[in-house]
Specification:
The protein has 204 residues and is of the alpha+beta class. The chain contains two helices and 14 strands; from the N terminus they run H-E-E-H-E-E-E-E-E-E-E-E-E-E-E-E. It has a five-stranded antiparallel sheet, with no helix packed on it. The chain has a four-stranded antiparallel sheet with strand order 3-4-2-5. The protein has a three-stranded antiparallel sheet with strand order 10-9-12, with no helix packed on it. The protein is globular.
C-alpha cells in the first residue's frame, strides 16, 4: 500500500514538473515578440520642398544633437549612442555630427499635418509583426541582425549597415527578424498626423 502511494506521489510530482516546464516554455515563447519602441516624434505643419531624404548622424552627446536639430529633425538616444535624424534635401550635414547614412528619396506625401517619428525595433530571430500599414512611409536602417519586409511588391532583406527605403502610404507589410542574431533597427516615419499611425491590413 505504501509503495503504491509513493509511486502515485512520484507520478504527480513528475506531472507537476512537466506542467511547470511547459508553462515556462510557453511564457518564454510569448515573451519573444517583435519589439517596437518610439524614441522621438514631432508634428510639423509642412515639409521641406523637393525630394526628401532621411539623414542619420551620430553625436558625442544627446545635447550636442539637440543643439543643432532643425525643424524637421529629431534627436534620440538609442543603444547607448546619440543620434540625429533629419528629413530634408540630400547632401546636408549637421555641425559636429558624423554621417552614418542618407536614405531616399522618401515617397511623396501630402497631408494637413505631418508626423515625424523614430522607432527602435527588433527582436530575436523568428519574431515578426502582424500585417499592417501606415499613412506614410517607413524607412529602415539596420544596426544588427537581418530584417525582412514582405509587401505586395515582394520580399526584401537588409542586414547590419544597410538601409531600406519606405513604401508609399497605406502599403500592407509584415516585418520580421530573419537573421541568426538579434535584430536591432532604427525606423524613420513621415506620416499623415491626422490618421491612425498604424492599422491592421491584409496581404493581397
Amino acid at each position: 500500500m505504501m509503495r503504491a502511494v509513493f509511486a502515485s506521489r512520484q507520478s504527480f510530482l513528475l506531472w507537476a514538473i512537466l506542467m511547470m516546464a511547459l508553462s515556462l516554455m510557453s511564457g518564454l515563447a510569448l515573451a519573444e515578440k517583435f519589439d517596437v519602441t518610439s524614441v522621438a516624434e514631432k508634428k510639423v505643419a509642412q515639409l521641406p520642398p523637393g525630394p526628401l531624404f532621411w539623414r542619420i548622424e551620430t553625436f558625442p552627446t544627446l545635447a550636442n544633437a539637440q543643439a543643432v536639430a532643425g525643424p524637421t529633425a529629431l534627436a534620440a538616444e538609442v543603444v547607448g549612442k546619440a543620434w540625429l535624424f533629419t528629413l530634408g534635401p540630400p547632401g546636408g550635414a549637421s555641425p559636429g555630427g558624423t554621417k552614418v547614412a542618407e536614405i531616399g528619396p522618401v515617397p511623396p506625401l501630402s497631408a494637413p499635418e505631418y508626423l515625424l517619428r523614430i522607432n527602435s525595433a527588433g527582436g530575436p530571430p523568428g519574431v515578426k509583426t502582424s500585417v499592417h500599414m501606415h499613412p506614410g512611409s517607413e524607412t529602415f536602417y539596420i544596426l544588427t541582425g537581418e530584417l525582412t519586409q514582405r509587401t505586395p511588391e515582394g520580399v526584401k532583406h537588409v542586414s547590419a549597415g544597410q538601409s531600406m527605403l519606405g513604401h508609399p502610404p497605406e502599403t500592407p507589410m509584415q516585418v520580421s527578424s530573419s537573421g541568426s542574431s538579434d535584430l536591432s533597427a532604427l525606423v524613420m516615419f513621415v506620416a499623415d498626423a491626422t490618421k491612425p499611425f498604424s492599422s491592421p491590413a491584409t496581404m493581397p
